[in-house]
Amino acid sequence: MIIGNYTIKQKLGEGGMATVYLAEHNILKQPVAIKILKEEYVFNENIRKRFLSEAKNMFKMTHPNIIKVTDLIDQEDGVAFVMEYIEGETLKEHLERKGKLTDEEIKKLFVQMLEAVSYVHEQNFVHRDIKPSNFMISPKGVVKLLDFGIAKNTDKTSAEYTQTGTMQNMGTPMYMSPEQIKSTKDVTDQSDIYSLGVVLWQMVMGQKPYNTNLLSIPEIQVAILKDKLAKTKSIWDELIDKATSKELQERLVNCKEIIYLVKKIDNIGVEKIKAEETVLVSIVNNDLNKAEQSNNKRLTDGKKEQKDKKKNYTTPILIVLLLLVFSFFIYNSTEFVSNDNEDNRGQAEDYTNSSIETQTPTGEINTNVKKDSVIKTSNGKKDSVIKLSKVKNASLKNTPNPHSTKIQAIYKGCRNCKKLYPKGNPGQKTYDDAIALYNTHRKSH
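RE: above sequence
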């Protein structure tokens, strides 16, 4: 099928008054979309005029988010206009395929939709048929506004100013504003804003706001007039409420304002999500910290318990060892005193004013050393820490051996002497023997 300079390839979609086809320019071989008025309406003067008006209005529009009209075909037996061809799917198809959208995707798409409608309003038009099927989404995510078939020209000075009767009802019932239901004559930019709010609700929820299978058109219209849309429990609820307010004075006024709010809501949403994530991380960290503290406490208690157990074992052992050492010293001290008493039994003279012989550095015996002197070896070093004054009640006169107590005291702490004299007491020997033994003791050490 050929119409004008275009060859029809396939059908893309169909509406109440027109059908859209994919076509190709016969010379340029460029793919285009052609909207052709149905045959039964070609000779309907009112519909034909409105169709041509749509083409002219769209031709004036130049915006990246509005479909561009490039050509108009007005023949006696047919009317059509040519548009740029956009691959992709409508928002309606997108929602049917994906269901509810993410906040990020809503923001990306909805801002473009607002930009398109804002431009339409700036051109003194009210679209009057804002709905998901009139927005095309390209594979790259670019949104294009379609179908200006019932757009109203609000410029009263324009020759194409739209005159609308009060009883006319134009638009899609589910997305119509309360004032549009009451009278199409009273629609304003805010009517399109109401419809955008309903579309936003659908993008958030992933479903239509009204069940058309259960509700008739009059029932839907009554619900629009009386009831607010249900809450979505999302970051978009406040904006939806302001956009779909029943009262015009409470409804948002222009799309630029909504664009600002969308960006603000998006930031708040991101901050809210981050705050929730922070709280969640904090809760998890607290739980982990509590678990770690509990685990550390168990480990500490375990170590403490083990330490206590060690203490319980260590303390008795130390006490036993101390008792053994103490007993050893007591035993030796007792033995020493006992031997002293035996050797000195029968001695009558006090040792206080006595002199005693000691060995000189050359090894000879010296009798001029007093009782408190310390016996030294031939090299001048101390031989024993035992002072002669420790020998109690020792009388060196009128005894077989005046050096017996001294020699006994020295030998008492010498293991070698014990080896020399394993039996008997050197103090019981004669004076000469004592001197000889003493000198032998010095030479052997």
